[in-house]
């Protein structure tokens, strides 16, 4: 008997943990494949085993970026039910990989954002390589831990902390550019505040221009095309500035073939050029959306739910474009240090910049996509539904905030984090909802609870009377009439109890943003840089001890 019980427990455990084992197996297969490929394709390099280990760590970092950071791009769309989880993962994985491979191969500074002074290594490549490996592994481990805790954190800050900690361990505190670190610390406040304000302003504008109107159909036909056009303007500007830096000369050459268009060829797109291109594309978008909404076969009901559905397709495009830009930019967090290690091993020296070989780019691109596919759903749910309740309009405003904040901040020279912006946008729409509902007259929860208790007592008395009549052996006509009346009373009383419970729930939901989620996420943001730094320092000394 005990053996059968144990076997049942084992079967149940395998059933529950089976998907986890499959995901782990696929992840390990990818890591081993990357490591093996690196050894085989770099056979002529004397220290190819060390490079293989570095590639494995880079792939591990890329997978963690996919598991944690990409949720910010698609989480709101999933939470609003504009996309299913599967659809979001497929779209994000494709666009992340495309962004990394097509537009992410720009020459990357080996020392991310000038955090440390490489001259402190005295031209000795060994401690530099150890420091980069420690930084990469520390950033990956911290991201892995944050994902397990369902805390969306900045991958950039993770690798920044890793580089800083490993650099201090290798050459002392003087190696760190503290002015750069001060800017990064400032982004902890600037990013979420800017993102939250912009998302809240757009939500307020949509509510006042469409949702709060009596004739929502006419308001939607007038303003939805305008909002979608503004979104396309912002996203094209964002993509040009952040996603097409590497391939910009080729893009300009292609555009100049078209009649009536001439753009001066520059190494990188200028802000004015990106802004003009975005505006040009937004014009046909505006007229296309307006024509669609005014078409006879397009049915719009005079309700908020119907207006919500109008933002579904723009949200899908937003998720794809955000993922493309993210892949083009944040792939450097995984492959920047790996490219530095590759350059130092192959060339036997340290350089301030290092070209990224195609195989290194592939490690980052496919690593992000695989990490997202295997482990991204956890953080997508956190961002999409576990901070505040989202619908398509709110998710649309968060996507707008993500693009516009980056554009504004980049022109003002303000340090921002895409993760913090997106989460700040989620906070912003949640707090605006609380503000707008602050004056709703409600009975206190205590009074409703007392009323619910009395209603249940009445319901129980009805049920007791009905039960006693049912058990009566001989029933008169009056008994049957009374029984029917009791059943009607029971039905009405159950409806009343249900309404009271809903009212209590609505009162409790006046806090639309979950405070526990805020505390956890902010704590993770603050801890990210120092945690990654301490971990990187420890790993550096461990690697150094092994190698010496």
Automatic annotation (TrEMBL):
Topology term for the membrane: Multi-pass membrane protein
GO MF, any single term: phosphate transmembrane transporter activity
Subcellular location per the Swiss-Prot or TrEMBL entry: Membrane
Keywords assigned: Coiled coil, Membrane, Phosphate transport, Transmembrane, Transmembrane helix, Transport
Transmembrane parts of this sequence: 21-40, 46-67, 88-108, 128-147, 159-178, 184-203, 223-241, 270-289, 310-328, 356-375, 395-414, 420-436, 522-543
One GO BP: phosphate ion transmembrane transport
Predominant place of localization: membrane
GO CC, one annotated term: membrane
Residues in coiled coil: 452-510
Protein family per UniProt: Belongs to the inorganic phosphate transporter (PiT) (TC 2.A.20) family.
UniProt cross-references to PANTHER family, sorted A to Z: PHOSPHATE TRANSPORTER (PTHR11101:SF80)
Protein name: Phosphate transporter
Species this protein is from: Sulfurimonas autotrophica (strain ATCC BAA-671 / DSM 16294 / JCM 11897 / OK10)
């Amino acid at each position: 008997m005990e053996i059968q019980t144990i076997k049942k427990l084992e079967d149940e455990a395998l059933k529950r943990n089976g998907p986890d084992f499959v995901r782990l197996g696929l992840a390990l297969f990818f890591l081993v494949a990357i490591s093996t490929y690196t050894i085989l394709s770099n056979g002529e390099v004397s220290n190819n085993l060390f490079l293989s280990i570095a590639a494995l760590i880079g792939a591990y970092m890329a997978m963690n970026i996919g598991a944690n950071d990409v949720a910010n791009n698609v989480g709101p769309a999933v939470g609003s039910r504009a996309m299913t989880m599967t659809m979001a993962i497929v779209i994000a994985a494709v666009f992340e990989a495309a962004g990394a491979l097509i537009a992410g191969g720009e020459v990357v500074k080996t020392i991310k954002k000038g955090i440390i002074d490489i001259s402190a290594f005295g031209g000795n490549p060994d401690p530099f390589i150890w420091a980069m490996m420690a930084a990469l592994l520390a950033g990956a481990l911290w991201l892995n831990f944050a994902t397990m805790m369902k805390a969306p954190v900045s991958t950039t800050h993770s690798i920044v902390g890793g580089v800083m900690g490993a650099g201090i361990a290798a050459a002392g505190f003087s190696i760190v550019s503290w002015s750069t670190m001060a800017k990064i610390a400032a982004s902890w406040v600037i990013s979420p505040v800017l993102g939250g304000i912009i998302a809240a302003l757009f939500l307020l504008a949509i509510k006042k221009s469409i949702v709060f109107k009596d004739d929502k159909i006419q308001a939607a036909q007038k303003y939805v095309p305008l909002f979608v056009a503004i979104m396309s303007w912002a996203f094209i500007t964002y993509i040009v500035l952040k996603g097409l830096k590497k391939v910009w000369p080729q893009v300009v050459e292609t555009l100049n073939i078209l009649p009536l268009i001439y753009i001066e060829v520059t190494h990188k797109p200028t802000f004015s050029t990106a802004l003009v291109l975005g505006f040009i594309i937004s014009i046909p978008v505006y007229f296309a959306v307006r024509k669609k909404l005014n078409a006879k076969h397009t049915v719009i009901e005079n309700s908020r739910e119907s207006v919500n559905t109008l933002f579904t397709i723009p949200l899908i495009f937003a998720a794809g474009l955000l993922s493309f830009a993210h892949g083009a930019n944040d792939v450097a967090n995984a492959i920047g240090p790996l490219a530095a290690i590759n350059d130092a091993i192959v060339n036997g020296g340290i350089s301030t910049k290092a070209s990224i070989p195609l195989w290194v780019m592939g490690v980052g691109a496919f690593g992000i996509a695989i990490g997202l596919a295997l482990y991204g759903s956890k953080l997508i749910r956190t961002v999409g539904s576990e901070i505040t309740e989202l619908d398509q309009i709110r998710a649309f405003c968060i996507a707008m905030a993500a693009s516009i904040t980056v554009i504004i901040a980049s022109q003002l020279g303000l340090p921002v984090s895409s993760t913090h912006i997106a989460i700040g946008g989620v906070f912003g729409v949640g707090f605006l909802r609380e503000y707008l509902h602050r004056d709703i007259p409600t009975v206190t929860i205590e009074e409703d609870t007392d009323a619910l208790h009395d209603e249940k007592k009445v319901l129980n008395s009805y049920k007791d009377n009905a039960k006693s009549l049912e058990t009566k052996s001989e029933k008169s006509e009056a008994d049957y009439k009374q029984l029917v009346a009791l059943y009607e009373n029971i039905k009405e009383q159950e409806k009343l109890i249900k309404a009271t419970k809903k009212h209590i729930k609505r009162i409790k939901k006046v806090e639309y943003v979950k405070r526990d989620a805020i505390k956890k996420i902010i704590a993770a943001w603050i801890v990210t840089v120092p945690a990654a730094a301490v971990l990187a320092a420890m790993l550096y000394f461990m690697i150094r001890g092994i190698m010496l």
